[in-house]
Design brief:
The protein has a single domain, classed as 3-Layer(aba) Sandwich (Cytidine Deaminase, domain 2), CATH 3.40.140. The strands form 2 sheets. Strands 2-1-3-6-7-8 form a 6-stranded mixed beta sheet. With 150 residues, it is of the alpha+beta class. The protein is globular and about 40 Å long.
Length: 150
């Protein structure tokens, strides 16, 4: 379970980055949890190659893999683990899309199968909903947690 401070920090990040999708990860152990805001590279990818990356940061996110790996290594050195990944959806609901699944899985499975995945719905700069999703290995898919998961 994530702390209320983490949920607030993720929510604030989503509002700050609007109208672009935000992205990041949460690491920690027990009640000590840290939010790491990551830079969304989607606009840069789109500018460099719009055919391969047709979506902008308003419709997609791309975390810098080197930044993410550095954060994960730092967490491991500090005895922490990846607790959650998060990103926002702009002016639409907090659902786990097919693209979200594709981004979060490698060879059909997530790299961190126990991590929570948060999707933040931001409409006109205001957070309307945050939903949590977990991996179900048996179903080979992510499923939404009940509304009271926080």
């Amino acid at each position: 379970m994530l702390t209320s401070d983490v949920i607030m920090a993720v929510s604030d990040h989503a509002k700050e980055d609007y109208p672009a999708e935000c992205c990041g990860l949460v690491v920690g152990s027990g009640s000590i949890q840290k939010v790491h805001k990551c830079r969304n590279l989607q606009d840069e990818l789109h500018r460099q190659d719009p055919e391969t990356h047709p979506r902008t940061s308003r419709e997609a996110f791309a975390i810098d893999r080197q930044e993410m790996e550095r954060l994960i290594k730092e967490a491991a050195v500090n005895g922490e683990k990846v607790l959650a990944f998060y990103h926002s959806h702009i002016d639409c609901g907090a659902y786990f899309s097919a693209m979200d699944k594709e981004v979060q899985t490698v060879f059909g499975e997530p790299e961190f199968p126990d991590a929570l995945h948060l999707v933040v719905a931001v409409y006109e700069g205001q957070v309307r909903e945050i939903r949590g999703f977990l991996w179900n290995a048996e179903m080979q898919d992510f499923f939404a947690l009940p509304a009271a998961w926080q």
